[in-house]
Design a protein that fits this description.
alpha/beta; globular
Amino acid sequence: MIRGVLFDMDGLLLDTERLGARILPRLCRERGYEVPPDLYGRMLGRGYAEDCQLMRETLGAEFPSEAVLEDFRVTLQSVARNGGMPVKKGMAACLAGLKERGVLRALATSTRRATVELYIRHTPEMQNALDSLTCGDDVERGKPAPDIYLLAARRLGLSPEECLGVEDSLSGLKSLKAAGIAAVMIPDLVEPDERFEGLVSYRLNHLGQLCGLVDRLNLAPGVRA
């Protein structure tokens, strides 16, 4: 029986990743660095420390990753404050539909809590729509470690087997696998390839299809991919 759904945020509930794919290369160029085309995709779903390390490994040990990521955070927050944060297709109906079914809804994101709370304040569709928030600074190890998802399930009072996790990134799917939580993938910027083999239980095109999947699973609760 699916009693809770655990959601990633960036690229899954909010369309931040397309914004980020434009903003990050610009911030790097302002400091004299040209970003490889695949760098941003490799950063998706990771925690702050992991992103800093990956940027230095890619762009050089002297790269000011902390300063760039701070500018990146401030820029996205400015977009949110000005009411420009786009939401993903079907998000509002999905969260409302799960609530009507008595299914708990939790956020499980690598993004820091202060930023998450700011996004929610300025995104009407997310206000009062979630039962619990678990953020990147709530755990020592970020995705792909299982900690965020395990904590998110515990905060709902549920076991991993009672939850679905919904992700768009490789790191997030690895986190769900390690946590023993069935994974729903809704691709955003990254399409699944051989790296995703064995990580995805169910694939959907958009959030509007999620309530139907939960209904099917709860009609046949013994069937799990």
